Amino acid sequence: MDSSTLRRWVLDANDGIISTTGIIQGFAGAGANDETVLFAATTLMITGGLSLGGASYAEAAQDRAAERALIEEEQRQLALSPQEEREELRDHYISRGLDPDLAETVAGQLMRKDPLGAQLEAEYGVLDGSRVTRPWSVAARGFFGFLSGALPLTVAVVFVPDEWRLAVSLAVVIVSLTITGLVSARAGTGHPIAAVARSVTIGLFIALLSFLAGNVFEIIDQFIPQIDVDGDG
């Protein structure tokens, strides 16, 4: 798995961790029973994963269409004016520091072997014209990334007694965000300690806000008289 894929997984998994944390702590703060918390967490895990997967698919499909348009345009230009494309490729390598004779040799060899790939790499940084974005693969990665973040917390809700749910869920959040922070750092996005501290701090802050918000709703429910919609008093 390359670094860009790891970074994408970290983002998707963090979405699952933090979203599920907010739901569980919010419902716990509101005094919801076990069944309600479990239903909310499970529903979020599934719908959140599907939503993220759908959004990822739509974005990837747009990228794929743009990539295919670039490939088709390069193919058209190569068919119409191959010599002009070769000269552009030569000029590209001259601008990269090669002397004109060597740039001419390199451009000629690349144009004989893979003219489309050479042009795409020089102009757009695409190494292989056949490796366009695969929307379904991106969608699956988004869905399972979110699921991998949400699942540990959801499982904790199932197997942990009510009186231990808050402490255990926070522990699961810390462990999960520590793992994603370390993976993020390994993928080249920062120092491990800073990455872990940032992830854990954000997750716990959201958990605290969600728990307090749930408590607010519980207080409102307890102290504000219920409106009698039937008019019976």
UniProtKB/TrEMBL annotation:
Keyword Transmembrane helix in record: yes
Pfam families xref list: VIT1
Compartment(s): Endomembrane system
Organism: Microbacterium koreense
Signal peptide boundaries: none
Protein name: VIT1/CCC1 transporter family protein
Top-rank lineage group of the source organism: Bacteria
Residue intervals passing through the bilayer: 138-160, 166-183, 195-217
Membrane topology: Multi-pass membrane protein
Alphabetic keyword roster: Membrane, Transmembrane, Transmembrane helix
InterPro entries: Ccc1_fam
